[in-house]
Specification:
Oligomer: single chain
Radius of gyration: 21 Å
Number of strands: 21
CATH architecture of the largest domain: 2-Layer Sandwich
Structural class: alpha+beta
CATH topology of the largest domain: Uridine Diphospho-n-acetylenolpyruvylglucosamine Reductase, domain 3
Distance between the termini: 24 Å
Bound molecules: flavin-adenine dinucleotide, uridine-diphosphate-2(N-acetylglucosaminyl) butyric acid
Number of domains: 3
Strand order of the largest sheet: 1-2-3-6-4
Helix content: 10-25%
Number of helices: 8
Strand content: 25-35%
Largest sheet: 5 strands, mixed
CATH class of the largest domain: Alpha Beta
């Protein structure tokens, strides 16, 4: 059923009882009580003004590739529809490009690389939209969004005004930002601006990136992009085939005392030293050692070659996926005294 509401001659298309199966990468067959996709600021602000009277819970959705719906959403889902790529600052070595929230992330990375606007190649093929990219400061293969982020525009629901937030205001960290923390639910990101280089600056330090680029006789940013795509395709399940949201958990930081205890029993535990006497341990390793690699309960399982990814093998519910993740967390906690934190946004 569809409701068309006319306010001040602006048409707001609010859909009722909207199916979300195509709007979440777990492929969960859930629904939103109301759904709207405002394509410009005027429609967005009119929508919010109208919704203010109803006081419904709000959820901003990108492409749903980092979200787990445990139930139907009994509120209004807003999927920003702002499009466009605009060069807003041009220097000899650098440039700033403003991109609409609803542009697909990987289409944007491909376009930028083709234009000779460099710096995002390592983030190729990450699913999702541009508007969501600052929310968890997306990262892969040795690069994080924050390195190329300049500023963003967002609607501040609290102050009811359009704001521009710079790097500092966004408080980026590992898979985190103000949008996942203290300002959760406060902003609707509408545009993101990136500071990119005209000169190639290949980042090859992570894992087997350099080896694979050499094997492919690659030298250019586009070659690097293609190598990253090939590595990702070899490791991660394609959500179109097997519903998933990428890494379900973050890689945990543990303090040195706990790390030393783990190392007594497992001298080969992989680790990355971090500031403040902390060690980052791959969650995939902890999950594997807890016996969960490739394990399946009903229609939910961990991916056989990357147990950090939880997969909907078909017909699972959000609650089943959530319960499965709880069991993994319990075992990792019991065996290693390490608390895993979900990366995926649970609704
Ligand atoms: P959604 O899932 O729609 O939303 C994510 C969160 O952002 C939600 O809390 C939502 O409310 C909020 N949000 C969305 N849009 C807005 C907006 N405009 N304004 C305010 N809040 C908003 N992530 C990585 O960092 N690195 C990876 O390598 C990686 N690999 C992945 C591989 C696979 C196969 C999959 C399925 C996921 C992977 N992810 C990875 C996770 C995911 O791609 C990113 O988190 C991505 O940024 C999510 O984008 P989305 O548009 O789908 O966001
Ligand atoms: N490992 C195991 N067993 C496995 C697989 C991996 O023990 O079966 C261990 C190995 O020690 C390996 C380590 O885990 O060296 C790291 O594995 P990988 O390089 O695949 O990376 P990851 O830490 O599992 C992170 C991100 C990914 C990102 C890749 C590449 C997080 C939570 N995940 O995964 O991001 O693509 O690095 O940079 O930081 C996502 O956030 O959704 C995501 C997919």
């Amino acid at each position: 059923m569809e409701q068309i509401i006319v306010i001040f001659t602006i048409m707001i298309d609010i859909q009722h009882n909207h199916h979300l199966k195509e709007l979440n990468s777990f492929g969960l067959d859930t629904r939103a009580a109301y759904y709207a996709r405002p394509a410009d600021m005027e429609t967005l602000t009119n929508l919010l003004e109208h919704e203010n009277n109803r006081q419904l819970p709000l959820l901003v959705l990108g492409e749903g590739s980092n979200i787990l719906f445990r139930n139907d959403f009994d509120g209004l889902i807003i999927q920003p529809g702002m499009k466009g790529v605009e060069l807003v600052e041009e220097g000899e070595e650098e440039l700033v490009v403003r991109v609409g929230a609803s542009e697909n992330w990987d289409d944007w990375v491909r376009f930028a690389t083709e234009q000779g606007w460099y710096g995002l190649e390592n983030l190729s093929l990450i699913p999702g939209s541009v508007g969501s990219s600052p929310v968890q400061n997306i990262g892969a293969y040795g690069v994080e969004l924050k390195e190329r982020f300049d500023w963003l525009e967002a609607w501040d629901i609290q102050l009811k005004q359009l704001v521009r937030l710079d790097h500092t205001a966004c408080q980026f960290g590992y898979r985190s930002s103000i949008f996942k923390g203290e300002a959760k639910g406060r902003y609707i990101i509408t545009y993101v601006a990136f500071r990119l280089s005209r000169k190639p600056d290949l980042k090859l330090e992570y894992g087997n990136v350099k080896t694979e680029l050499t094997k492919a006789n690659g030298t250019t940013p586009m070659d690097l992009r293609n190598v990253i795509i090939a590595i990702r395709k070899s490791k991660l399940p394609d959500p179109a085939q097997y519903g998933n949201a990428g890494s379900f958990f973050k890689n945990p930081m543990v303090d040195r005392t706990i790390f030393n205890c783990i190392r007594v029993e497992y001298p080969k535990v992989p680790f990355y030293p971090r500031a403040g006497n902390q060690m980052k341990i791959p969650a995939a390793w902890l999950i594997e050692k807890s016996g969960w690699k490739g394990k399946r309960i009903g229609n939910v399982g961990t991916w056989p070659t990357q147990p950090l990814v939880i997969v909907n093998y078909g017909g699972a519910t959000g609650q089943e996926i959530y319960d499965f993740s709880e069991k993994i967390m319990e075992d990792v906690e019991r065996l290693f005294s390490v608390t895993l934190e979900r990366e995926v946004n649970v609704i």
